[in-house]
Write a structure and sequence with these properties.
This protein is α+β, with helices and mostly antiparallel strands. The protein is about 30% helix and about 30% strand. The longest helix has 15 residues, at about 95-105. Residues about 115-135 have low confidence and may be disordered.
């Protein structure tokens, strides 16, 4: 398995994975909209996406969004998006994606957190955020 930061050339690989991710969360397939969304993230460089490959096959991704915490007085990276395609689950790929994201957070001295759940108006109190942890 190989994991690396996604680049513009990964758009065709990421689009169906992102669409499958959204469908796994109960959303309808919107392949064109997913392509536009991922393309914007890659072009605007406003998130970090790690993509996992087995051989040359894209099998999963994790996406981090930069932010700041006034309460903690630190930059943060939220990760909302973690997905491994169904045929490749139970192989530790998700764990490895999380580890890779945590390595980047550690290297750049940025606190990384995971949003557990977004409800209502979309605001999540900082106390409800779980610190980024890898799970074996």
């Amino acid at each position: 398995m190989h994991i690396r930061i996604a680049i513009n050339e990964d758009l065709q690989s990421l689009t169906p994975l992102f669409d499958e991710y959204r469908k796994s969360l109960g959303q309808d397939s919107r392949l064109a909209d997913c392509k536009e969304f991922i393309e914007s993230r890659l072009l605007e460089n406003d998130s970090v996406i790690f993509i996992a490959f087995l051989m040359d096959t894209p099998v999963g991704f994790i996406q981090l969004y930069p932010s700041f915490s006034s309460l903690l007085l630190k930059p943060l990276w939220y990760f909302d998006d973690l997905f491994v395609a169904e045929p490749y689950r139970k192989r530790g790929i998700g764990t490895e994606l999380v580890k890779k994201a945590k390595e980047l957070a550690d290297e750049t001295q940025v606190l990384a957190v995971r949003r557990e759940k977004i409800e209502g108006d979309g605001f999540v109190p900082i106390e409800t955020l779980a610190l980024f942890e890898t799970q074996a």
